[in-house]
């Protein structure tokens, strides 16, 4: 899948910020035998840790409830813009029915490893920025009437992207034929760097740990949301014969299928956001480092903690958006235990992933399970299966609404657990 171009810049600022969120979509199975590295993004399969973290990478990640090894949901390669590290985020979840909706059944780790190419890249950018700053200072000296303050120290302390470059796509492009693709547009590596990067193999977990098979590559696109009011001519999906009224009616009917009207405006907002992303309706995860996550339900404990006091009813006017960011208070999230750095939102998984990672895809052999031929269960077999499921012994479909990962802002080097917040799937009241 070819990433779409960045959305056009907004000129009036009336709509939500568009374009900072990256959406990831399944993009085809990883061939059997291909060994993806920590610089590849995928769902299912086995995690790969950077070679330099071999001593600290977990041998298995276990459920905090049943203490059994649990399958990987997603591995996301996402080096920070102007960072010096390879950065990979991993999310696991227990598939056992008995562990569903229980704290500790979903876990996330992050591995960060110094990448000499990025280090060189950042050093080059820093040198260039310093050269420009020196020029500015020289200009300021020449023209005594300049009103512009000469930049002083703390050049790199700013939260603004100093270098002004567009953010590189933090996900590795899906690599053809199992080759790890270089992550960012950097200068060709020197031989020394190349030698360094192939010095050791990534640490990959494998059978007999459980995994969803086959693993699937992730392709990423920018989130592009149509402007709320624009029923403009360039909307390729629109039918010219449709009146605005017909369109509105269709939209309402579309909603009707998903939920009874007015059940939960936060949920409605969540679904609408996922549904309206151009080419992104099959998104399985959303990446937006340091941004405000998209909450799933106003009744979840996590929502109440993240957005205390936020209005949960949409304003009466259809087009007005509640800016939940004004209520966002993630300060209760514990800091990184390794460097004490603040944790910020980084990535969230959305329910489409549940439709892709089915219990029937779970395997402990490293290969995709062979589907059993359909057979008619006897009444006794059927009862036994139901009893097993009722006891929570079997694997069953996951039941979460969204999984949010909050991780170390300082990108400290090493492997360790990060903080996960889960909004469980809303229980449908009869
Ligand atoms: Zn468990
Ligand atoms: Zn840290």
Automatic annotation (TrEMBL):
It holds the Pfam family PDCD2_C. Residues 229-243 have a biased composition (Acidic residues). Residues 264-424 form the Programmed cell death protein 2 C-terminal domain. Residues 227-248 are annotated as: Disordered. One of its GO terms (biological process) is maturation of SSU-rRNA. Signal peptide: none annotated. GO terms for cellular component: cytoplasm. This is Programmed cell death protein 2 C-terminal domain-containing protein. The lineage of its organism: Eukaryota, Fungi, Dikarya, Basidiomycota, Agaricomycotina.
């Amino acid at each position: 899948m070819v990433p779409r171009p960045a959305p056009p810049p907004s000129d009036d600022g009336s709509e939500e910020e568009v374009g900072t969120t990256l959406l990831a979509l399944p993009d085809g199975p990883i061939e059997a035998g291909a060994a993806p590295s920590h610089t590849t993004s995928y769902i299912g399969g086995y995690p790969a840790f950077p070679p330099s973290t071999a001593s600290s990478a977990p041998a298995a990640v276990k459920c905090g409830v049943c203490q059994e090894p649990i399958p990987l949901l997603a591995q996301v390669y996402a080096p920070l813009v102007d960072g010096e590290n390879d950065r990979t985020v991993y999310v696991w979840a227990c598939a056992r029915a008995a562990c569903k909706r229980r704290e500790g059944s979903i876990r996330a780790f992050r591995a960060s490893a110094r990448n000499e190419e990025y280090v060189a890249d950042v050093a080059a950018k820093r040198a260039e920025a310093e050269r420009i700053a020196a020029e500015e200072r020289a200009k300021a000296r020449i023209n005594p009437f300049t009103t512009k303050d000469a930049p002083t120290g703390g050049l790199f302390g700013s939260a603004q992207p100093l270098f002004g470059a567009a953010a590189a796509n933090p996900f590795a492009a899906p690599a053809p034929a199992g080759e790890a693709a270089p992550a960012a547009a950097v200068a060709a590596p020197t031989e020394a760097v190349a030698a360094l990067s192939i010095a050791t193999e990534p640490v990959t977990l494998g059978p007999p740990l459980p995994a969803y098979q086959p693993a699937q590559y992730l392709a990423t696109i920018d989130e592009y949301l149509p402007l709320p009011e624009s029923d403009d001519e360039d909307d390729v999906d629109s039918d010219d014969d449709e009146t605005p009224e017909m369109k509105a009616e269709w939209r309402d009917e579309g909603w009707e299928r998903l939920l009874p009207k007015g059940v939960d405006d936060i949920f409605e907002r969540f679904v609408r956001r996922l549904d309206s992303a151009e080419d992104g309706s099959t998104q399985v995860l959303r990446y937006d480092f340091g941004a405000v996550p998209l909450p799933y339900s106003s009744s979840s404990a996590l929502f109440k903690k993240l957005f205390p006091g936020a209005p949960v009813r949409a304003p009466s006017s259809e087009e007005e958006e509640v800016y939940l960011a004004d209520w966002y208070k993630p300060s209760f999230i514990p800091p990184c235990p390794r460097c004490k750095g603040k944790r910020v939102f980084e990535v969230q998984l959305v329910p489409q992933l549940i439709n892709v990672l089915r219990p029937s895809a779970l395997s402990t052999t490293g290969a995709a399970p062979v589907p059993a031929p359909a057979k008619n269960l006897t009444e006794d077999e059927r009862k036994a299966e139901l009893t097993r499921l009722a006891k929570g012994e079997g694997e069953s479909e996951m039941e979460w609404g969204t999984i949010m990962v909050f991780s170390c802002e300082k990108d400290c080097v090493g492997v360790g657990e990060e903080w996960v917040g889960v909004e469980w799937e809303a229980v449908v009241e009869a």
